[in-house]
Amino acid sequence: MKINAALTSEAQMRRRTYLVASILAALIIIVFFISMNTGQIKLSPQEVISSLFGAGTKQQELILWEFRLPRIVISVLIGAGLAISGCILQGITRNALADPGILGINSGAGLVIALFIAYVPLTTAVPVFLLPLMAFLGAAATAALIYALAYKKRDGISTSSLLLTGIAVTAGINAAMIVLTLRLNPADFQRIATWLAGSIWGTTWKFVFALLPWIVLLIPYVLYKARTLDVLNLGETTATGLGAPVKREQLLLIAASVALAGASVAVSGGIGFVGLIGPHLARRLVGPRHRYLMPVTALTGALLVLIADTVGRVILHAGEVPTGIVVAVIGAPYFLYLMARSKA
């Protein structure tokens, strides 16, 4: 009877996940068409579909293929990447507040990217394809620094010390970023200021192709490790007792999380809270099992960033609000709510 009940529960969970994922995918498609029609020049859904199949005017196809479509694709990719990155960190640390932005990983990637775009021209394709790699190196160095500072010989890594160390390191990196921006010429300062605000500044296909391999390779790998994340989420002692190579798996999954966050930040700029909100909303929808949680997390993060980018382009008539600011308006109160719940 217990086996039958477990099989029934598994089937119900699978159906629920398919339903939730289908709804999220449908919402992404709806927002896709809304975003296509958002801007100074309006495109109706019929014109969008015609242009997608090469039946639109030259102006419509130029707007669609060269300006709006790359930005939408990038929004979806970075939303999925940042959300999965946060899901991994929350699973490993068993900390509901873990997020690559809050822990300082995004800031570390951002500092290296700021140095890179300030001193290396992005007029050729090669520097653009180096951006995710440079961001990964910066994010990895920051993650290693946070781990070293938060680690204690007797107690190991506690979630509270990890969070506080990440916040402190983020403050230091932000201070270094301010010093850097003061030494730049106006043109480079404007580019970095745009990045810091979380405006999706990489809006051409070469930025899409620079980010795409990281997402396509790492997300399937992390999905493959879903059962391992479930075991690690039980705690190191229990996971070790179940025969899991805890240290090795933690290292590999943290590396994947850092790489996803760094590559996304390289193109998106300083967008925070996606890795916090995405996993939380997905967990409320499909529960904590990573086999079901992570695909829904990816879709939730993609939808969140796509909505934020679309909303940011319609709030002001004369310009646009950076995507990072729109996400922060949602994410900051949610973070404070989670902090209050954790103390209760």
From TrEMBL:
One of its GO terms (biological process) is siderophore-iron import into cell. It holds the Pfam family FecCD. Signal peptide: none annotated. SUPFAM superfamilies: ABC transporter involved in vitamin B12 uptake, BtuC. One of its GO terms (molecular function) is transmembrane transporter activity. It is a multi-pass membrane protein. GO terms for cellular component: plasma membrane. It is found in: Cell membrane. Belongs to the binding-protein-dependent transport system permease family. FecCD subfamily. This is Iron ABC transporter permease. It comes from Paenibacillus nanensis.
